[in-house]
Amino acid sequence: MGLNKLDFAIIALYLAGITLFGLRFRKKQRTLRDYFLAGRDIPWWAIALSIVAAETSTLTIISIPGLAYDTNLTFLQVIMGYVVGRIVISFLLLPHYFRGDLYTAYELIERRFGRRLRSLTAGLFLLTRAAAEGVRVYAVSIVVSIALGTGEVASIAIITALTLIYTFEGGLAAVIWTDVVQTVIYVGGTLIGLVTILHLVPGGWTAIHSAAAAAGKFQVFDFRASFGIPYTFWAGLIGGTFFTTASHGTDQLIVQRLLAARGQKQSTIALISSGLAILFQFALFLTVGVMLWAYYRVPSTTFGRADRIYPTFIVSRMPHGVSGLLIAAVLAAAMSNLSAALNSLSSSAIMDFYTRLNPQADETKKMRLSRLATVLWALVLFGLAVIALHKAGRVVEVGLQIASVAYGALLGAFLLGVLTRRANQTGAMVGMVCGFGIELYLWLGTQVPWTWWVMIGTCVTFLVGWASSLKPLIAEAAEITRKDR
Questions:
Q1: 49: nearest Cα among 196, 251, 187, 221
Q2: I need a surface site. Which of 69, 288, 322, 360 has the fewest CB within 10 A?
Q3: What is the number of other CB atoms lying within 10 angstroms of the CB of residue 472?
Q4: Is the pLDDT of residue 140 over 80?
Q5: Which residues pair with 371 in a beta bridge?
Q6: Helix, strand, coil % in the chain, rounded to nearest 5
């Protein structure tokens, strides 16, 4: 069926409207505190929706339905771990972040260990966040190229350029408040899409439920004690908890939002409530995938790859107007995630490296360089997305795998800082190198599911870091004993 003039008008109206809305915040950006932390004056509910938007990329909207199409609902076990991880962060890490005037997560590392480890953790964040975000930006091209026929590279360029405009001008305030609007758009659009699918399947929900239940599509829990299955209850709950504790507790992409709250209490409320929203959201996207399976009843390979099923359905089967709204919803998720990445990468590059090395630089110069850094990171992500065109598999899992490779080392270092007093900078750095090396090996040299990588990397980093920190103490104690004799 394809898109018609009404659909294109809706998409164009969304792209123009969200860009102009974001530009409204450009006059309020006078200092780095304004640009990177929105003046620490964002209400909890806006931060909660922004967190949801930041972790909901195009990967989620197009790939999670494809995952359910091929399998079932067992991915929800990972999301349950996401909720538990947020509770852990609220008690373990948030109190430390609100002691002092921090701009990035890695300032906490410097305060506990020293500058070298801050540079290492911030550098690891920049490297892996850029790589994971490149895959996410690539996912946008799947939708836009199917809907608009613009070609994948041109599609990536269009979305990157539009998102850059308001992120460049409006900073974190523009990012958060456009996130709020975009969350409403893509969740509302998905609900409309769900109702539309119900009407397109003969027999409606009754027929869908009957067929899907018989095929085991509604299975949520898998209690098998198998280490090789990625979505069991144990892998989901334990792996999801470690993954989220790392992603929301040590990744500047999310920590930056938590630091923008009016206080620790509001930050905690925002974090916990975002977990409940994420649980609902993933259940919604997975249900859409099950319904698409009931509609098509053909192997996902018919579409080339599972990630193309939902975008193809939107363009070819949805009524005009609804198609345009759903494409706009997918673009909303893409732009909210991309804007978050650009601002967090820029904040870490400026605050963790430039400002620390050039403390005498005036505020005007730092603001100018912050905007320049935003542009440079946009170019980097564009390049990585183009590379991902030829490398990515099922995009949601590729994105999670890339992020997981670094998260264990980061979380292990943070836990060494907040749970131990004896750990030192050298020991923590040795632990991080070992933890990161183990996770690279798990990714490139084994079949261990990604859901376990963060836990394994965290444990290796923590144990090696703690043991390495004890060596100087043991040597010192031995020397004192020798002298006493």
A1: 187
A2: 360
A3: 13
A4: no
A5: none
A6: 80, 0, 20
How far, in Å, are 59, 131, 246, 383, 391 from residue 160 at the CA level? 16, 15, 27, 11, 20
Share of the chain above pLDDT 90, in %: 47
Q: Residue 368: count other Cβ atoms within 10 Å of its Cβ.
A: 12
Q: Does residue 42 contact residue 362 with C-beta atoms inside 8 Å? A: no
Q: How many CA atoms lie within 13 A of 391 on its CB side?
A: 15
Please list, in sequence order, all residues whose beta carbon lies within 8 angstroms of the beta carbon of residue 131, skipping any fewer than 6 positions away.
384, 402
pLDDT in tens, 410-469: 999 999 999 998 899 999 999 999 999 999 999 888 989 989 999 999 999 999 999 999
- What distance in Å separates the CA atoms of residue 247 and residue 454, rounded to the nearest whole number? 10
What is the predicted pLDDT for the residue at 39?
Answer: 84
The backbone region for 304, taken as left when phi is positive above 0, alpha when psi lies in -120 to 50, beta otherwise, is left
Question: Would you say 255 and 249 are in contact if contact means Cβ atoms under 8 Å apart?
Answer: yes
Asked whether residue 197 carries a pLDDT value surpassing 60, the answer given is yes
Cβ atoms of residues 443 and 435 within 8 Å: no
Q: Which residue is associated with the tokens 């994948």?
A: 152
- In this structure, how many other beta carbons lie within 10 angstroms of the beta carbon of residue 435? 29
Write the pLDDT tens digit of every residue in 304-337. 878 888 888 888 888 888 888 888 877 777 788 7
CA distance 395 to 270: 28
The full set of domains in the chain, from first to last, is: 5-391 (1.20.1730.10)
Distance CA 175, CA 340 (A): 6
Enumerate residues 6+ apart whose C-beta is below 8 A from 469.
416, 420, 422, 423, 424, 426, 427, 428
- The DSSP element (H or E) to which 407 belongs, if any, is helix 395-419
Q: Which residue do the tokens 């992120």 mark?
A: 167
- Give me the residue label for tokens 């899992």: 397
Tell me which residue has tokens 């018989």.
214
Check whether 247 has a pLDDT greater than 80.
Answer: yes
pLDDT at 295 over 60: yes
HEC secondary structure over 309-339: HHHHHHHHHCCCCHHHHHHHHHHHHHHHHHH
CA dist 384 and 376 (Å) reads 13
Cβ atoms of 377 and 39 within 8 Å: the answer is no
Separation CA 393–CA 306 (nearest Å):
10
Would the pLDDT of 345 be above 70?
A: yes
